[in-house]
Amino acid sequence: MAKLPLTIACGPYDRMAALADGRVSAEGIDVTYIAIKSGPEIFSRMIKGREFDVSEMSASTYLSARTRGDFPFVAIPVFPSKVFRHGYIFINRNSGIKNAADLAGRKVGTMGYGQTAAVWIRGILQDDHNIDLRSIQWLEGGSEAPFSGRSKDFKVPAGIKIEKIADDVAMGELLARGEIDAMLGARHPITFGKNPNVVRLFSDYRAAEKDYFQRTGIFPIMHTVVMREDLYKEHPWIAASLYKAFEEAKAVAYREMRFTGAMRYALPWLFQDLDEIDQLFGGDPFTYGLAKNQKSLQALARYLREQGFVDTDIAVDKLFAPIFSE
User: Which of 216, 249, 280 is the last residue of a domain?
Assistant: First the structure.
């Protein structure tokens, strides 16, 4: 019996490499892996053109759009992108901001109010630093390119004011000139490392992120993996086949990373970092499955409700295809 041909669009991650190059196969599936560096490009092409059978997808987009309905994609509990975000809050050195509480009443730029990274950062600022998001003067714009715009379904929450900056202005330049006080999002400002006025809010962000994980057990989820709903309804078995293949590919990446005969990556303290990963994460920071990611998914779902992206609670457990091989 011929295998089912499927295209998978996802980032060029080490944890996907063995699936992309054929060292790992998915049961009953002939995989064509399309590695695309830009996550937003993948999301847009999947949502607007349904160009792929399976693709990486913004977690905030999926949870909110699937909850609202009329989103013809079903996720499997695979999370190829997780990122701690304390290191992605930047300030102007001369703004007078000394700690997170000082962001209240300031002008803060974001690369899209609905960006998953921004949702996480705002949620953390609320939970850990008691920041009232309504006290901040929000601006949306591109870090180094025109802002592509928010979802048409997004309604600005009551009490929140968001101003769009000009398309020909890089937000990182505004931060460097002191025209905004801070900036947050999924990328570093283009002026970071070039202009001494642009610095991180948390200078020892790694320590802040470790403390956050130890307190909460959360490694923030940025992206999940979705498949076309019509495809899933016709071939429901593909969910488990894909899940097992993604797990196997990740295991291959971990084994290769841990080979001590020669360093695989140009990271001088790679093996020390792996020791830390073993201590903090039990050896697997990129866990898949609903049970192991419940805290992170529930936190993101709560932030999306609190920040106005959905009008009802998000039933996380009902939004992912059941995987009985977990």
Answer: 216
Which residue intervals of the chain are DSSP H helices?
Answer: 17-20, 39-49, 59-68, 116-129, 171-177, 205-216, 229-234, 238-257, 270-281, 294-306
Say how many CA atoms lie within 13 Å of 114 toward its Cβ.
Answer: 24
Question: Is 236 within a domain?
Answer: yes
Give yes or no for residue 149 having a pLDDT over 60: no
pTM of model > 0.90? yes
- Flag whether 324 is in a domain: no
Q: How many domains does the chain have?
A: 2
Region 63-74 average pLDDT:
96
Q: Please write the tens of the pLDDT for every residue from 77-99.
A: 999 999 999 999 999 999 999 99
Q: Tell which residue, 223, 300, 301, 231, has the closest CA to residue 74.
A: 231
Distance (Å, whole) CA 291 – CA 298? 11
For residue 28, the enclosing domain spans: 4-83+220-318
Cα torsion 191, 192, 196, 197: sign: positive
Contacts of residue 136, defined as CB under 8 A and 6 or more positions apart, other chains included, come to: 103, 104, 105, 106, 107, 108
Buried b (16+ CB within 10 A) or exposed e, 188-217: bbbbbeebeebbbbbeebeebbeebbeeee
One domain, residues 108 and 186: yes
Q: Is residue 68 part of a domain?
A: yes
What one-letter code names the amino acid at 189?
P
Q: Report the percent of the chain where pLDDT is more than 90.
A: 89
Structure tokens at 280: 């903090």
Are residues 57 and 177 located together in one domain of the fold? no
Looking up residue 205, the CATH number of its domain turns out to be 3.40.190.10
